[in-house]
Amino acid sequence: MDDFQLLIDLHLPAKRQGPGSPTETKRALELAGLRDAGPLKVADIGCGTGATSIALANELDVHITAVDLLPTFLETLNQRAEEAGVAGRITTLEASMDALPFEEEHFDVIWSEGAVYNMGFSAGVSELRRFLKPDGMLLVSEITWLTDVRPQALYEYWTQAYPEIDTASAKLAVLEDRGFSPVAYFVLPKHCWLEHYYEPMEQRFETFLEKYENSDVAKALVASEKQEIALYRKYCDYYSYGFYIARKI
Ligand code: SAM
Question: Which one, 125, 195, 225, 233, has the greatest CB density within 10 A?
Fold first, then answer.
């Protein structure tokens, strides 16, 4: 099995594949004024196994198109949506966010938690804007520096992993430049990283390593996740995900 398949296998059993939580998803939909705005056509881009899509389907009068590159994530999303009783409100679609097969101005809301980085924030928000109706809302979470200065080791790690990591003011300026009016911004609290993402992952490491008989590839993957987690525990005051809510103009 190659590195990528192992990475999928480590993350497939998780409730979510990146930092976030149902509380913060709800907070974002309230800030965007979506509570009484239905019925809405929503896209969840880079939906993973469906934490956000299922939360939104439970909260709002919506139909959600849940898009991801990976069919195994979408299969799990479909099972979880059935179990949650919201399968009728969610349609899954295997597609890449840089080649979405939608008509322009199709959606009222485009949501994307922890996934726009796959295209890069600037290119990603520009691309997604095309598929929003006029006045449509974009809700994206994106890794963000929380301070203007930061330790060198942290700076080097994250700028190598994701060169577009930046401060909230820089991200808001990108949104303005790309045809959005920012409506709200908040920082994902620590429980979104620890309780909802890293700690459940840590609990899977042992079984994962046993399953792959402590192969070098499996050990390297776990070591790299452990490095990311240790860095977060040490430097979590310097970065988080920012949640950006903006209206298309
Ligand atoms: N939104 C989910 C969540 O918060 O749990 C998943 C976030 S995970 C960090 C990023 C997701 O983006 C993964 O499910 C991955 O398969 C998906 N992805 C990666 N590249 C993509 C692409 N080019 N188009 C669509 N989805 C992509």
Answer: 125
Does ligand 1 come within 6 angstroms of the Cβ of 18? yes
Tell me what ipTM this predicted complex has: 0.99
How many structural domains comprise the chain? 1
150 C-alpha vs ligand 1 centroid, how far in Å? Answer: 27
Could you give the CA distance from residue 249 to residue 247 in angstroms, rounded to a whole number?
6
CATH number for 84: 3.40.50.150
| Pocket residue to mutate for ligand 1, from 8, 90, 118, 241, most atoms within 8 A of Cβ | 118
Distance (angstroms) between ligand 1 centre and the Cα of 242 equals: 17
Cα–Cα distance between 197 and 28 in angstroms, integer?
Answer: 19
Domain coverage including residue 25: 15-189+239-248
Ligand 1, atom nearest to 16 Cα: 5
What is the token pair recorded at 196? 């909802």
pLDDT of residue 159: 97
pLDDT band at 75 (very low <50, low <70, confident <90, very high): very high
